[in-house]
């Protein structure tokens, strides 16, 4: 049960409160994912007063505050198209109106729709803990960093192309599988692909073996790629789907998304 | 903490607790439009508000987060009695049913229209993506938005989108705003939660973690010692009365196989102990202090396991019969912890072998029929356990009023609740008042008394007000669900398609208790077999106890499962014969004038009544549907992975239970010639109150506004069995029709006396007057005359409605699906539902009932299923994981149409409407899938994984 609610007005103050209360405390933005972030917190630290919701374009790319809601980002014309598509896979508009991008990253959910896209687009985040650091989203979600995310930075794709895809049963279900692929091209070959996928492991992962197999090669036959991906993932069985189906769908969605990215590149 | 923000235009200040949710602040402020249906995980959206102009779930927002900000609820948008444009448009499109989620939908549309001038269908889907509605099927909301947009520039715009029927009548068959609609769109107090007093105690239930176990010991002393705990009830101190929770007419076919608390638990979530405490938090803490030791038994989860020789026995206690005990009844050596079962009359059970009930019957000679067949087909079909998921969880509020027990209930059966509670508490019915509040969706799950009696008992014992509200998880594991069934169908046919024999063998899983155990599975036969004219028919129905979560009634009762099996078997037979499916249906279907002999053996625990079919709209429904979907014209897919197919199913239901159901109404004339109509009917959001009002207005040729209605209150309205078995329009509407007809007769008698003319000279004229040869008398003048010192007294007319005549609503549903061979995904692209409801009393609401029934069963067919583990625990007991369809899941082309027929028995030729709508989706979609990719899906849900397996792709 929540016993204290703080509304700090500076990042330092917020960080100090988190240091003081430790695991009892959770940052709260939109409040849609407080549970995954911290089960049963007794202290809530509202980041709404930290003014971390600016969105801006720079020479390197775009940057936006972690307090931006998903809908704000969807409505921002400079928001990159693949990111917008991934964001809209969070179909529930009420949730998009509340949920913040910082919360989505911080929750590190396996099927967080934006996470594969951020990984594939080589996004970084600014995390304020004992010190302030900029780390890649991929490293963050597979690490244990507990600091406050304040900003997200996504570089322009320079001669790279990104696509996203996902599968869910009903329109507002959590995604069963969520995928993003970015790649460059070298003639008729794929160059330096990034294949990020959610729904097949505890966190969003990159399929590095698949990336290596694709690099320097022309796009493989769809069925080949499906089998390649299926063999590289080890999802579990749960109430929603068997491991075999998730693995199959991982292959199908990756193959589809990679095909789309290749078409985009060409 | 101090909180100050702008609420509906006013600066408001509150004292709040840290972490308190905004929804709680708003409800404490009296804003009843903000509602809760999902345990605050954001999945239902019934609490949607505008925060700084954005639609958000107020259950997810901490109150402190809105400091200095602007909050708007639906109450902001209507100006006292004047509705907003959107509120009015919602009523005029017929999108309002139970009204529980309506304020949330309206708020979401308000936000939409503030940012988009002419929203597209996709814009509307996006705007409403956060709001879950189980009643309406969403389709009419697009029309509501269109009307609202149009009225921005043309405030007087009158839409012509609602079809109208029966030119000879004034209000019946024509659009009129739902009588309770304005209150519902304003979000006014209407539901149980809105009646709770400030001093109400909270009841929380300790539930079994085991599917099958004895309670070896239970220690409640620490809980009872906790400050603020009022009472703890367990099997040790609860009432020693056996009963059924099923709300059925007495004597019920359902066995009395449970007490309020037993020494044996029979499902995960079964009752162990109830705690009543001053606050919800104290009640929860007290639950944690109760120590229970279980002797865990092996659970039985399937009908196959239940029927096995030597299987664990779910009910192995003493057996009693009120009448008809078999001579060999043997109760020696039973374990008292098992409790007992009392049968009101034999239902062919053998609880020692987990057989809860059984029935079989038939007509003709089955062997002869199969001998005559040139093609024989045998198939097995299965349905899964489905949750009703009304947006309003089960809830009850009980209190004492001058020594009488008052039960504010969200129920379909207020009079059955009164009777059963009276029996359990051993107090006469006149000491109990049940007030049926607006129900926030019911669909059958509120036909049973799943929590009312516990709260009532606690109030009666302690004298305290008690609120008992299920969590969403409790709704899943402790309310009511569709029975899982295994249905074997065997068909024999000539090569020309003529059916020669039909056999149905149904095995149903009733779960831990036997509410509706005979009648739901039996309906799988009684609402499907009469669709085909076949001389040789036989059925067997066996129902087994098990340890799955409780089952019971769900819209359609057993019919959706029987329809799935028999209609799909018919599709398979047509395919095997190489015959067009529509042609096969046309050759064998029921039609006007058909004699349904089979019904003689399909009564509900009693002999059935064979019926003649006096009206049947199947012919025009099939023709219209075939035209709409371009039957016989294959559709090409631009995507090579996707194949498109079309399917059809015919369907029927009943209109109440002839010979079993009864309804009453009473109408009295007021001093100005207006009327008060008291109806026992229970409007679940279906529009029944509008039906009964229209009945009276039509008969009396008076404006609907001249009739006020009160319904579903056991103190003030006359008896009605309640809203189930599609009885509302036929029975409750019939009672209102009969009462108004009696009132009309009294009016004519009095007028004859006033004018000195014979009654034959007189006739009623609209509005509210009687014309004779010598003059005209208004109802107001009649009222003054009768209520004067020399008059005959206030005109009051009571009538009831019973019948032994059945009226059957029919329909034909057509589906077009796109099946993705790589993903297994099935998209329902088009769905056309053509239904014969006799004379549609409220056309717009009837269409809404169809849309809602269809979308529910699209969900059942494709996605929904309660998934249990090997210990009987439900793994997806919440709205986030259960896969209920939302607005984004409706077919791209979704159309319901009414086929008007004139039935001789229902009031103004009406028949029932909503339940029938649940019977077409599964077989129509399954046969469309076969048409697309050549596989027969014989088990709900047709999940992508099952599709791929059937395609040998997984």
Task: Describe the protein's architecture and organization.
The complex is a heterodimer of chains A (266) and B (954). Chain A has helices at 11-21, 34-37, 70-75, 81-88, 93-98, 101-107, 114-120, 137-141, 208-214, 222-232, 243-265, and strands at 4-6, 25-28, 43-46, 55-57, 61-65, 124-128, 132-136, 148-155, 161-167, 177-186, 189-198, 205-206. Chain A is of the alpha+beta class. In chain A, strands 4-5-8-6-7 form a 5-stranded antiparallel β-sheet, with helices on both faces. A 4-stranded antiparallel β-sheet of chain A has the order 9-10-11-12, with helices on both faces. A 3-stranded parallel β-sheet of chain A has the order 1-3-2, covered by helices on one side. Chain B contains 23 helices and 35 strands. In chain B, strands 8-10-6-19-16-17-18 form a 7-stranded mixed β-sheet, sandwiched between helices. In chain B, strand 1 and strand 2 form a beta hairpin. The longest helix of chain B is centred in the last third of the chain and has 28 residues, at 728-755. The radius of gyration of chain B is 28 Å and the shape is globular. The chains are: A alpha+beta (266), B alpha+beta (954). Chain A binds chain B through residues 1-5, 7, 28, 30-32, 35, 44, 46, 48, 71, 91-95, 97-98, 167, 169-174, 238-242, 244-245, 248-249, 252, and chain B through 1, 17-19, 41-43, 45, 48, 51, 54-57, 60-62, 64-65, 67, 108, 126-127, 129-131, 281, 822-823, 825, 859, 862-863, 867, 875-876, 880-881, 883-889, 943-945, 948, 953-954.
